[in-house]
TrEMBL record:
Residues 71-148 form the Ig-like domain. It comes from Lacihabitans soyangensis. It comes from the Bacteria. Pfam families: Ig_7. This is Ig-like domain-containing protein. Coiled coil: none annotated.
Length: 151
């Protein structure tokens, strides 16, 4: 049985000699011993059946394949703000979130806040969303401007 992410290969394998007949979801058929489905999608999820015929005798087996979708993720809009203001990082999606950014910033919550922004927190922030063993990433750019100096 296989559990893979959408877009990955499905490798169906068998051993022994004979004539092979594979069938599966979405009208899949193959006479190869070890067929591969390139660029899988969720419609490839299901049971694949194999029948091998040798000298008039047949044997059958099945295997299950689950193709999990890549989670849909959006990072919030790019932001420009003044030093001392809050950086509010936002994202949409469902699953496990992981943020990283300048100065070793990291967070495991969906929408983290940096309460008091400093100049060294300007840069690219990356959020990764994981669900069912599959992941996707998105970025947002934060620019922190210095406060004017009054003399």
């Amino acid at each position: 049985n296989q559990n893979i992410c959408e877009g990955n290969l499905i490798n169906l394998t068998s051993s022994g000699g004979g004539d092979y007949s594979w069938t599966g979801p979405s009208g899949f058929t193959s006479t190869s011993q070890n067929p591969t489905i390139n660029s899988s999608n969720v419609l490839n999820t299901g049971v694949y059946s194999l029948t091998i015929t040798t000298n008039g005798c047949t044997a059958s087996a099945t295997t299950s394949v689950t193709v999990n979708p890549i989670p849909t993720l959006t990072a919030g809009a790019n932001q420009t703000l003044c030093e001392g203001n809050a950086i509010n990082l936002t994202s949409t999606g469902s699953g496990d979130f992981s943020w990283s950014g300048p100065n070793g910033f990291s967070s495991l919550i969906q929408n983290p806040t940096i309460s008091v922004a400093s100049l060294n927190q300007s840069g690219i922030y990356t959020v990764t969303l994981s669900l069912n063993g599959c992941s996707s990433s998105a970025t947002t750019s934060i620019t922190v401007n210095s406060l004017p100096i009054i003399t």
